[in-house]
Each structure stands twice: as C-alpha cells, then as structure tokens.
Design goal:
The chain is mostly helical. The chain has a three-stranded antiparallel beta sheet, with no helix packed on it. It contains eleven helices and three strands. The protein is about 50% helix and about 5% strand. It has a domain of about 80 residues: Structural Genomics Hypothetical 15.5 Kd Protein In mrcA-pckA Intergenic Region, Chain A (Roll), CATH 3.10.290.10. The termini are far apart.
C-alpha cells in the first residue's frame, strides 16, 4: 500500500469508518470488550427495524397482530424479554440483552467458569455441550429451554476434575 499524501491523511482524520452514528462509538467498544465479542457482525443483532415496521402498520391489521405475536413469542423464548405483553418491550432491547444470552455469558452465570475469557476458552476447546451436541461457538444463543441442558462433555477432563473435587467420581469414570 502506498503512503498517503498529507491532504489524504487530513481527510481520513475527519471520517471514522468504525463508528456508527447512532451508537456514539464508545458503547460498541465497551460491549465488545465486556462480552469478549471478536467480530463486529456478532455485535449488531437488533430487532428495532422490525418493530418500527410493525408500528407503522395499522393496529387492526391481522398480519400485524400475527407478526407481533410471533416476534414477542420468539424473543420471550430466547430470553431477551421478560413477558409477551407488548411491542414496547422490544423497543428497549439493546445489544447487551442479546449478549447476556450467549453461551459464554450463560456459563459464567451458571458458575461453570469464573470469567468470560475462561468460558470462551472452554467452549472453543470443546468442553461444553448443549443437549446432546458439543458447541464450539461462543456466540451460540442459549434459549430459556436450552439453559437447563448446558453441561460438560462426557470426555472432558474438566468434568472429571469437578467430579473428583466433589467426591462424586465413580469407579467407571475413574477407569476411563
């Protein structure tokens, strides 16, 4: 890449390609650091556009009623809103509410890991499963129903150490 000329550098100082007008810039970096988000694409998961489109439609329209109910049901099942009452709950959704449902954050909440970075490492190394499937993506969204099925992989040495510490390691597990 060639070296930029003086006037090109001056123009680039005025334009910030990494900041979004609406966010103000500082909030994005804070949330990305707090939840250990590596990709910018994972950062912005918003339903506010959809809510605005639904609000512009006629309140008596059966399609709007059906889509509103479907949206509220979906967001409630994911666990980002506390109830299915109104569309106003969806307007106040932030990126942090979605980040709190990521697998790494849920692991810290369930006390599988002490810190987010440690939880991300466990997930990437394949120590965690949700239901029968091993998950290696820290950005995996855990729904309300799936939260009960987050556990260690059977072959995980961390699971073995936890069982050994709690004196619950049986003879069959000790042989393997």
């Amino acid at each position: 890449m060639r070296k930029l000329k003086f006037h090109e550098k001056k123009l680039l100082k005025k334009v910030n390609f990494l900041e979004w007008k609406r966010e103000g810039g500082h909030r994005e970096a804070f949330v990305m650091q707090r939840y250990h988000i590596t990709g910018r694409d994972d950062y912005k998961k918003s339903v506010q556009k959809l809510v605005n489109i639904l609000k512009q439609m006629d309140p008596k329209d059966p399609f709007r009623i059906e889509m509103t109910d479907a949206l509220l049901e979906k967001l409630y099942n994911i666990g980002v809103i506390p109830s299915r009452k109104s569309l106003a709950l969806c307007e106040r959704l932030t990126v942090s509410t979605f980040c709190r449902r990521r697998l790494s954050t849920v692991l810290v909440h369930l006390k599988f890991a002490e810190h987010l970075k440690e939880a991300v490492t466990y997930i990437e190394q394949g120590h965690i499963r949700v239901g029968p499937d091993t998950v290696t993506d820290p950005a995996f969204l855990v729904t309300r129903n799936m939260e009960d099925f987050v556990t260690w992989v059977d072959t995980s040495k961390i699971k073995r150490k936890v069982l050994e510490y709690n004196e619950k390691l049986d003879d069959y597990d000790a042989m393997n």
